């Protein structure tokens, strides 16, 4: 998906991103359901290559905001702009069950090198040999890897991720988090990650935004080791004291009492 104009939200693809430029800007985004405001004026900028996590309580409007930014909500108002190419990964894999894995990844691609691009993307998510499998033959984690490959094959400047690992078991989720860190280090895409999971936000993000009362109520830079700018740097760990302190601060802010 490329950032494009949708009724109510103006968005224009204006070419590839160059270093340091904002890959996403949103200004004054509002959305109400049945007269009840859910987004009440959101301003947001994501720099090229930056990973931003969007945290907030259940029903705070995280998925609504992501859908607006993805150009999937015609009713929202405000301005959004994506520079370059954006791709979305949802909590459910959304693969077409009647198409083989490779054809799902290739969906909508044109040009002479589709097959090799698809093979490369599947290899990058560890599924080089599942090209001809049907979605029903995959585990939940594998299906979600295919969904990531389908996004990756578009060489996105920005990934919009809506609870992408939320339906996976804890071990698979950890594997997917480290896959995302590695892919980000290799490809340098920016990402907006909607998550319920404070630890996931701290492991992956450069910056955390707290959505509350329809606005970005707080912005917290994650001042820990880089979350994967380079594949060989040690990954962040929940064992680090600074990590624990930030986790506690976020849980307090979300109203989760200390154990
Ligand atoms: N299509 C819709 N019609 C009516 N109300 C909606 C619709 N989509 C979302 N809402 C309402 O908007 C509010 C925000 O929903 P949203 O799914 O964006 O929250 P969320 O922060 O992603 O929640 P969760 O963390 O539980 O997924 C909720 O009160 C929800 O009921």
Automatic annotation (TrEMBL):
Per UniProt, residues of the ABC transporter domain are 24-238
Q: Does the keyword Nucleotide-binding apply?
A: yes
Asked if Cell division is a keyword of the record, the answer is no
Record InterPro entries: AAA+_ATPase, ABC_transporter-like_ATP-bd, ABC_transporter-like_CS, ABC_transporter_ATP-bind, P-loop_NTPase
Q: Which molecular function terms from Gene Ontology are attached?
A: ATP binding
Tell me the keywords, alphabetical order. ATP-binding, Cell membrane, Membrane, Nucleotide-binding, Translocase, Transport
Superkingdom classification of source? Bacteria
UniProt-listed PANTHER family? ALIPHATIC SULFONATES IMPORT ATP-BINDING PROTEIN SSUB, TAURINE IMPORT ATP-BINDING PROTEIN-RELATED
Recorded protein name is ABC transporter ATP-binding protein
Instruction: Give the species.
Output: Micromonospora antibiotica
- Which taxonomic lineage does the organism of this UniProt entry have? Bacteria, Bacillati, Actinomycetota, Actinomycetes, Micromonosporales
